[in-house]
Amino acid sequence: MEKGRLITIAFTVAAASFAGCASVAEKNADQCEQMMQSKAEPALVSVSKSQPSPDGRSVLVTGMVEDQRSNTVVPAKAECRFNGKSLAAFHWLAPATLADSGDTRTNSANTEH
Predict the structure, then answer these.
(1) How far apart are CA 25 and CA 53, in angstroms?
(2) What is the top-level taxon of the source organism (predicted)?
(3) What is the DSSP letter of 53?
(4) Are 80 and 61 in contact (CB under 8 A)?
């Protein structure tokens, strides 16, 4: 019986540890989505997927954005990097017009809310 309890406790502690990591990754994904929206305003149409890394240190967000020049909707992709819960860097990967805009943040003091 004692061995069974120890195994149960070990699994509970492990699950709680993983839940804490998922929570940070989820919060970082939400923060990256918000940053993507604020950088694209008023043009972001939708976010289709947020993919945090297992440790939550980076997040890849994909969606659709309106190209102001051609009035068409094009795929958009942005990447965020985090130091813990603090956003350290944001940059556009697509579309090319945003990726080439130089809109990159590397100082978390400039991006905190």
Answers:
(1) 7
(2) Bacteria
(3) -
(4) yes
